[in-house]
Write the structure tokens for this entry.
Amino acid sequence: MTVTVRLLAPAAAHPLASQTVRFPVSGVGAGLSDGATSSTPGQTLDADIGDVDRLTTAGGWLKIAMSGSTASRPSAGLQGNITSWADPGFKAGPGFPFWDTSLDELVVWDGAAWRTADGASV
């Protein structure tokens, strides 16, 4: 599974909001072209895990949650000494947020099911 993270562009008041940050961004969303990540307020981007630190540090983008299709959601429960959801074999624990790109909304693992903000099981 390719690990991606849903990012949100900084608000206009952010000192970096008017800048364009150029990196080889592999996961591209919201109409952005590969390699040119504009920080237009309200815009989102699903970036590969390797690009996230550069985008959040240099561009002021905000991390929302791990992202991917419904089929790529992590499994339930943590295994072994895994300390990061980017590690192979990561399993979601209760309260883990995930931006489901198939549903285009945030879902949270409650320990038994993935739920939307209104509590519906999905």
Summary: Residues 27 and 47 are 4 Å apart (CA to CA). Strands lie at 4-8, 20-21, 37-38, 44-48, 62-68, 75-76, 91-92, 97-100, 105-109, 114-115. The longest strand covers residues 62-68.
